[in-house]
From TrEMBL:
Positions of transmembrane segments: 12-33
Superkingdom of origin organism: Bacteria
Pfam families per the UniProt record, alphabetical: FixS
Name the record gives this protein: Cytochrome oxidase maturation protein Cbb3
Keywords, sorted A to Z: Membrane, Transmembrane, Transmembrane helix
Species: Geomonas limicola
Amino acid sequence: MDSPWEGTTFLFMWLGFLVLMLICIASFFLWAIRRNQFTDQDRARYLPLMSGIPAADDPQEEALTGRSGS
């Protein structure tokens, strides 16, 4: 058991990594709560449904792209 990947050393390394990750996740979550990242849920609910393609007002542009504005 000379390798650090055997026995209790490996277990303690994983436990330390787990504790470090939990602290990081908790700190990001607390930051998000304090900065009011979760306040506008009604707007966030509809963001994926909004179209990101602007409607073309120019008929020549419609002919080039093959889309109609309506």
